[in-house]
Task: structure prediction
Amino acid sequence: MIILLLKYMPVCCSPRLDADCEDIVFDKIAEWSKKHTETTCYGNSELLLHKKMWDVLNRDKQGLRKEHSFVDWCRRIARIGAEGAATEHANNDNRFQKLAKDIFAHDLTAEQKKDPIYCLREGKSITTKQRSFVNSILRKNLGDARVAIYILEHGIPTLLDPPVPRRPLERAHLQDILEELMIWYASLLQWLTKHQKDPKTIMAQKLSDLDQKQWQTERRRRKYEAQEQLREGAHLAELRDSNRKRYHDMSATEQRVLEDFDRGKLRKLHDEVRVRKPEHCGRNSL
Result:
């Protein structure tokens, strides 16, 4: 898989260097296999994810071969991430906003530039349709839109980072930068796999599944009821605390709602039906 990536990189422009890269990569794989008899760099989940990503990158919807700019996009996102990290109070949301702004500035068609749907609102978050468009662009060029989040957090390895060395590389140095690339890519796949298994990610996927309409309707009903109960509990607590209505003057139903509110039960029920952002998985060691 690393060999596939290397074929798109200018550093491997000569047949001799290409062969050296392949030898070093295969040697490293063999070396890691000896050291990790039970756990390998790439498990079945990572290999399946890798195949899906490269199918998206290398084939169009008709299954025909296409050109892609994976390396160029890695560099572009890393540059935006580095610029965001240099600003005060930088976080992943701000960096993603910068990435979205860059995409809307450079990747819209002439027709899209005239469409108000693609007009970013100053000082406000991007809309659902705009986020969907950004994710579509990222998926097309990276195989998975979340690769961009990983790059914003972790940057890119030396071999993907310009400028590409013009002079011949010493084999020892080539070994180091190839190993760095392999560790980076393995960590990326592990991070994405953990992200996919996050219960919040699974919930978000289920919410957008067209085959889950009945479940989605039931969930919206439960969410509305939880919101109403939480709101009522907060109101009753405010009435009690301000001495406008004593606990003993409340009905049995109101007393039960207030007790559930005080114990945090209503908040817990409300949180259970909310969809939260999946936690960003940390980088794993091999």
